[in-house]
Amino acid sequence: MPLDQATWRRTRKLGLTGHEPSKAFQGYTFYTPMFGDGACYLLDMEGNEVHRWQMPYPPGDYGYLLPNGNVFYNGKTPPQQPGEYFPAWPVFKGGAMLEVDWDGNIVWQHVDPAHHHDGRRTESGGAVYLTITETPPELAERVQGGLPNTAHQGRMWSDRLVEVDPQGKVVWEWLAWQHLDPDTDVITPTDLRDEWSHANTIVPLPGGDVIVSFRNISTVARIDRASGGFVWKLGWDLLAQQHHPTPLENGNVLIFNNGSRRRSHPLIFSSVMEVEPVSGKVVWEYRDMSAPLSFFSSYISGAQRLANGNTLICEGVPGRIFEVTPQYEIVWEYINPHFFEAPVFGVNNAVFRAFRYPPELFPRLG
After folding, report:
1. What is the phi/psi pair of residue 91, to 5°?
2. R_g of the chain, CA atoms, integer Å
């Protein structure tokens, strides 16, 4: 009998692998296969699909639920013209942000071909999101780090943060190259020099500041909206190509630290950390201590602190979503059973992010 050539599908269990009801946060889990056809899934605690949204675009790269029960979705639009080049890793291109209701009807949409990775709905009814722009050549030459001679056609790109109002009008922007330091915001030595910052997360805060994760320089920072300066920065001495910083009610930040290309430790492993952002002190950290190298996602991934104190973790590349207690006990686990083929990732069941929501958000499910 011929063997399935997709390693993860062949060697791992799929769907629900475990659930401890007395310890897990009871609710519904929402996720989107990163390279799928635009289907977003809502699961009950037994891993059953209770609702599905079919989006008009493939994911670029994920969606999440709003307080009103609608989905805010980052979609991947096709090129505007044949041969159009998206310089910041085409695999992470977005292009559209939309809000859809329970039945999949679009109630708001904004399209920007330069959008990538992340976009969030704002309290004002618009959105804040990531785009890219070219770094001035004279500055790009001064940026430290990265593999020599790997700029794209001699050009280096960096991030432009954008906020639009409900009508799609730009009301704020921030250019990374104007605020990063070419001597200290150093590209990871083994990364290409076609990008300086490679943001993967933007989080709007009350008052207008944002928290951003810059993968290529292993940095998470809070940006002051008025001045454009940094309120605080966490760098490569703590982080390694991290994703999904999430502010907590206690003022700390929850971060999925991917651990790839780590500069401060020889081993490659992932962890989820709760960090005091000003001091940089780690106050809680999840690793797989029984088999440290087995918990690892080189790209994507995220984490969510749940209302009962547990943490939902999305180990993105292997499509694994699991919940751990503050004492590191796994009490729920689900492996995405939907596989797709994609550039670089090959045949995969990758999930960019996943979220758990309380039952009261879904009164129609009973």
Report:
1. -65, -25
2. 20
3-state SS assignment for residue 253: strand
Q: Which of 255, 260, 272, 263 is nearest to 297 (CA)?
A: 260
Q: How far apart are CA 335 and CA 341, in angstroms?
A: 17
How far apart, in whole angstroms, are the C-alpha atoms of residue 9 and residue 294? 16
Q: What are phi and psi of 22, to 5 degrees?
A: -70, -15
In order of 121, 181, 259, 323, 341, the CA distances from 215 in angstroms are 22, 15, 11, 25, 24
Nearest to 88 by CA among 235, 225, 200: 200
Q: pLDDT tens for residues 126-146?
A: 999 999 999 999 999 999 999
State the number of CA atoms in the 13 A half-sphere of 168 facing the CB: 8
Contact (CB, 8 A) for 285 and 239: no
Task: Identify the three-state secondary structure at position 46.
Answer: coil
- Ramachandran quadrant class, 261 (left: phi over 0; alpha: psi -120 to 50; beta: rest): left
> What length is written for the chain?
366
E strand or H helix that includes residue 140 = helix 137-140
Residues in a beta bridge with 341: 347
Q: Are strands 106-111 and 95-100 parallel, antiparallel or unpaired?
A: antiparallel
pLDDT tens digit string along 205-262?
Answer: 999 999 999 999 999 999 999 999 999 999 999 999 999 999 999 999 999 999 998 8
126 CB-near residues (< 8 Å, 6+ apart): 110, 163, 164, 165, 166, 168, 171
pTM, 2 dp = 0.95
